[in-house]
Amino acid sequence: LSSHHGWKRVLLKLSGEAFAGGEALGIDPAVVRHIAEAIAEVVREGVQVAVVCGGGNMFRGVQMSAQGMDRARSDYMGMLGTVINCLALQDFLENKLGVDTRVQTAITMGQVAEPYIPRRAIRHLEKGRVVIFGAGLGQPFFSTDTAAAQRALEINADAVLKGTQVDGVYDSDPKKNPDAFRFDRLEYGEVLQRGLKVMDATAISLCMDNGLPIVVFDLMGQGNIVRAVRGEKIGTLVSP
Ligand code: UDP
């Protein structure tokens, strides 16, 4: 549990759905503001923050392939969607809050972002810049959760903080079952065995194999991002 304190470098995973606020699609500026302000606060405290943006508010590959579209192509569309979220967050951090940022994408698009270069990303972080990773892993059949785990490992982050719409991990869906039980702590094996909805199995096993802690928390709760980054007790901690 000691690893749950004093994190110096974190990987914040932002679910795409959160960006849409109450809507099904698009970007709610109030959400971007909320996230950006919290990131600015912890960066000023000296924590190095890298971000992986999801894209569920734009496009999910699986949904379109269910309607007959080629899965890989629809996944590429999904990856492109995540970049739109990255640019929205970058804009708010830089133009409204004066926080230096760099967007790095797993699919090269030189006009809008740097390519993903891990050592350069680390250098940015050391200089206090927020590095925002877009386009997931650049590979179809993966998720941005898996990208978050992989990027966290490659840049040597202390933890993956998964900001989402729920305030932790439950034994059943809290929206359907009023008696759903919320876990404070879990081990990776338990997550996989019980099929708990933390991250997909690829992401979980990557974290498990490398002892990378995951915190699942409600992204929109007041002060939550700051608490998660500071390593305060919040949501559900998945760790060895
Ligand atoms: N995606 C992909 N490879 C990756 C990351 C994402 O193919 O490495 C695609 C996939 O189609 C996914 C979409 O991008 O549905 C959006 O990402 P995700 O569903 O992970 O976003 P979130 O659930 O965080 O909103």
TrEMBL record:
Gene Ontology molecular function: kinase activity
Keywords: ATP-binding, Cytoplasm, Kinase, Nucleotide-binding, Pyrimidine biosynthesis, Transferase
Catalytic activity: UMP + ATP = UDP + ADP
Entry EC no(s): 2.7.4.22
Involved pathway(s): Pyrimidine metabolism; CTP biosynthesis via de novo pathway; UDP from UMP (UMPK route): step 1/1
Binding site for ATP: K13, L14, S15, G16, G56, R60, T164, Q165, Y170, D173
Pfam family, one: AA_kinase
Keyword set includes ATP-binding: yes
Residues binding UMP, per UniProt: G55, D75, L137, G138, Q139, P140, F141, F142, S143, T144
Domain of life: Bacteria
Family: Belongs to the UMP kinase family.
Assembly with partners or alone: Homohexamer.
Role description: Catalyzes the reversible phosphorylation of UMP to UDP.
Name the UniProt record assigns to this protein: Uridylate kinase
Name of the coding gene: pyrH
